[in-house]
Amino acid sequence: MPYVVVSTQIRVENGPTVVGDEQSDPELMRYLGATLTSQLGNDFKEYRSPDPPRVLLDKLELRGYKVIAMSGIGQTCIWTLNKPPEFA
């Protein structure tokens, strides 16, 4: 089953929003308006969107994704979404 993790820093709740990693579906990332970026010091890349989390969660819902969990970790909010098999 496809999963997506969306996260943002509380202090920048209006964006940018992290929506995926290097192995995420490129077509879905284009739909979300996300670009693959690399931050200085990290040895991995991640997809970021300038949109706030609410906009991305709305877009993902239109594609059949449902929020299955949400958590706060330090200054970060994280949502885990799943696309049920009937939408895959």
Automatic annotation (TrEMBL):
GO terms for biological process: negative regulation of biosynthetic process. Its main location: cytoplasm. It is found in: Cytoplasm, Cytosol; Nucleus membrane. One of its GO terms (molecular function) is GTP cyclohydrolase binding. Gene3D superfamilies: GTP cyclohydrolase I feedback regulatory protein GFRP (3.30.1410.10). InterPro entries: GFRP_sf (IPR036717), GTP_CycHdrlase_I_reg (IPR009112). Keywords: Cytoplasm, Membrane, Nucleus. One of its GO terms (cellular component) is nuclear membrane. It comes from the Eukaryota. It holds the Pfam family GFRP. The keyword Nucleus applies. The keyword Membrane applies. Belongs to the GFRP family. This is GTP cyclohydrolase 1 feedback regulatory protein. It comes from Trichonephila inaurata madagascariensis. The lineage of its organism: Eukaryota, Metazoa, Ecdysozoa, Arthropoda, Chelicerata.
